[in-house]
Amino acid sequence: MYTSGLLFIGTNEIIIIVVLALLLFGGKKIPELMRGLGRGVKEFKEGQKDGPEAENNPNNPSNNDTVNNQR
User: Fold this and answer.
1) Is the pLDDT of residue 26 over 60?
2) What mean pLDDT value characterizes the chain?
3) What domain range is 44 assigned to?
4) What is the spatial distance between Cα 31 and Cα 70, in angstroms, rounded to a whole number?
5) Could you tell me if residue 17 is inside a domain?
6) Is 40 helix (H, G, I), strand (E, B) or coil?
7) Least CB-packed of 2, 21, 51, 67 within 10 Å?
8) Residue 37 within any structural domain of the chain
9) Transmembrane ranges (predicted)?
10) How many CA atoms does the CB half-sphere of 65 hold within 13 Å?
């Protein structure tokens, strides 16, 4: 039976990962990265909510460019 590898991450490993992230990105950059990640997840969920019917809707502003380019 396969189990997730994340089940075996302990406290020491999490501390090492956090310290490495702070060293690589710095204290000021991490909040910006998390904010961007949150926006990306929010846009992804909104896109999932819209579904495929939004792609075929001619009133969709993001779809107008592809409609105009096909003419």
Assistant:
1) yes
2) 78
3) 27-51
4) 41
5) no
6) helix
7) 2
8) yes
9) 6-25
10) 2
